[in-house]
């Protein structure tokens, strides 16, 4: 029996929507159904350039997408400052919600979004694609293995890319009225999510932002970092920046094992992804080398991680639509924890690098 | 013409002295000549177990090694608290000095050592072996290349190992009267050295220790970390611990390039060592992967890094002995900078994680 096809509407023609349109096409249980832009011409161009079927609806507003009764779900890649308005309206119109990160400017706004999703019975998921790669599940097996990894002690995450002059001048991610969280919201989101993921989503007790964040003239963060501290002594650090060469590291160190990867957000290649693990690493006699050596593991995937994300989201939506299941709250919880820590880091920066408690 | 053979005396029978004895044997311009221990039996056992020639001198005290006129240079792997006493005495006895790290408990003690070396015309070098691996020079070429690496923006270094219960109870590195700097002195030394090395030994303006260091009952650091901050905005972090699986990372990120290695202190294999670099990393169309991909570089070495260290030290000593050259001050300068930053991190921990200026 063919799977339920979830019909997607897309709000806006952001660059990332091109990638997600392809992912919707690739996912076996989803299809491109509508796109809306403030300019209907732009929407039409987007639809024709991104594999929308000839029957797809092209709208000159976001509202029109939400008013289309045949749209099951919307993907919202709008600037962060617009999330609360459009996400809430989408939920009210009973559209299931795949929302770009950062999910909101702050936790209070995000709670408004989640309340709207819950009261309208719609599924929420943020678009953190790497969560859905089979590599992620494989790495979780390692981190959960008390024999191979032991007890988590420290994590380091780094996500940087070198924005070009046009980006630094014009991109929404450097505009205080659009993505006020700047690099912290855009790529720090991934660092924080990766750290929480390694920690099995146990929230840190406190964060302390690193000194020396870089701001643009409008006060938007271009580069920053933080340490995160747990009650049991676990510690994490991250660094995110628009001003350095593209780098995407996660290192997790436990009492017995170590995990390394260098492409955690976007794997180097689409059809496979690797990570390195080591367990009870030690030295040869006279410390002339290591024994055992770390080992590399490669995980193949038929579908890219973004299509797997769309497939999982659509599966949940299908369960609600066809079988009357309740929305899965897990994804909103993970988003909320990420946003909580992100805002604590921002608060620490604003308070002159004082420790800030992470209060759920 | 055969190279000048530098005759080494070793003070004490520390475990690390076994490795360095082998290195002295391997270096073409050095030879094992004497070993002294508070127990002459222990010294004799050490000499016979570690390749000393039958003619080697075995002494029942450190003084006796220093009093032997045929000893050119001494390797001093004694506990840190004994460094100033024995290093100064060695210099006064005109013995060139290869000193284990951390070089001293603080900069003031180290300055006493250096003054003794300078006034007695002896060569100083600390035993940070990886500085002498040809991989290090190869990585320096990358970091110095404005086209491939650009301007340095951030560094992260991590050195941890999982000490066994016996180490945590009995090793000199957890004893306040022997190696009071604990994990910070023992392995944090390498982290700090690697960060300074990446920064071409430009000192940071300040450091801020990370919260949550772990101490043993005697108050010795078992785990800690810090951020380092430069005037131009460069930032570095490190984490060192006796309580986590063996991990040895350096990541350096510049505006144009990224360097990764995971075995910076002790290469995975003795005869070759690798590192990964990337330049102007970016994504494929639709961000389905990376282009270009990072590349792996492997550097072969005929001699292990410890023997290369001994060879370089002995070359400098030979120049002083045979050609009347002045001692090379570079190595003492690098040691002093490392010690300066190390003590600033310790001061930040002691001051409740306040920023501490690094004052040369």
TrEMBL record, chains A, B:
Gene3D superfamilies: Dihydrodipicolinate Reductase, domain 2, NAD(P)-binding Rossmann-like Domain. Residues 6-125 form the Gfo/Idh/MocA-like oxidoreductase N-terminal domain. One of its GO terms (molecular function) is nucleotide binding. Residues 144-259 form the GFO/IDH/MocA-like oxidoreductase domain. Pfam families: GFO_IDH_MocA (PF01408), GFO_IDH_MocA_C3 (PF22725). Signal peptide: none annotated. InterPro entries: Gfo/Idh/MocA-like_OxRdtase_N (IPR000683), GFO_IDH_MocA-like_dom (IPR055170), NAD(P)-bd_dom_sf (IPR036291). This is Uncharacterized protein. It comes from Nyssa sinensis.
């Amino acid at each position: 029996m063919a799977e339920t096809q979830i019909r997607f509407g897309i709000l806006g023609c952001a660059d990332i929507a091109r990638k997600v349109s392809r992912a919707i096409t690739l996912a076996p249980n989803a299809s491109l159904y509508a796109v809306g832009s403030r300019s209907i011409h732009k929407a039409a161009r987007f639809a024709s350039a991104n594999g929308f079927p000839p029957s797809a609806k092209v709208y000159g507003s976001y509202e029109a997408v939400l008013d289309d009764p045949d749209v099951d779900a919307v993907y919202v890649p709008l600037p962060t400052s617009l999330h609360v308005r459009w996400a809430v309206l989408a939920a009210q119109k009973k559209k299931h919600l795949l929302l770009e990160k950062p999910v909101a400017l702050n936790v209070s706004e995000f709670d408004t979004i989640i309340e709207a999703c819950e009261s309208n019975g719609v599924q929420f998921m943020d678009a953190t694609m790497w969560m859905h790669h089979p590599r992620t599940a494989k790495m979780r097996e390692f981190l959960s293995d008390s024999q191979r990894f032991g007890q988590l002690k420290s994590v380091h995450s780094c996500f940087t890319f070198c924005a070009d002059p046009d980006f630094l001048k014009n991109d929404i991610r450097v505009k205080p009225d659009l993505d006020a969280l700047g690099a912290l919201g855009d790529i720090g989101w991934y660092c924080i999510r990766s750290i929480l993921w390694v920690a099995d989503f146990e929230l840190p007790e406190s964060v302390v932002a690193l000194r020396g964040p870089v701001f643009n003239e409008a006060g938007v963060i271009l580069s920053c970092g933080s340490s995160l501290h747990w009650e049991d002594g676990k510690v994490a650090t991250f660094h995110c920046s628009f001003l350095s060469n593209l780098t995407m590291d996660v290192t997790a160190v436990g009492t017995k094992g170590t995990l390394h990867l260098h492409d955690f957000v976007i794997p180097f290649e689409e059809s496979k992804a690797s990570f390195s693990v080591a367990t009870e690493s030690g030295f040869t006699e006279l410390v002339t080398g290591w024994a055992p050596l770390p080992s590399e593991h490669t995980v193949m995937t038929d579908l890219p991680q973004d299509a797997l994300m769309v497939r999982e989201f659509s599966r949940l939506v299908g369960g609600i639509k066809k079988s009357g299941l309740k929305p899965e709250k897990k994804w909103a919880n993970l988003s909320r924890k990420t946003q909580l820590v992100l805002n604590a880091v921002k608060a620490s920066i604003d308070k002159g690098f004082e420790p800030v408690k992470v209060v759920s």
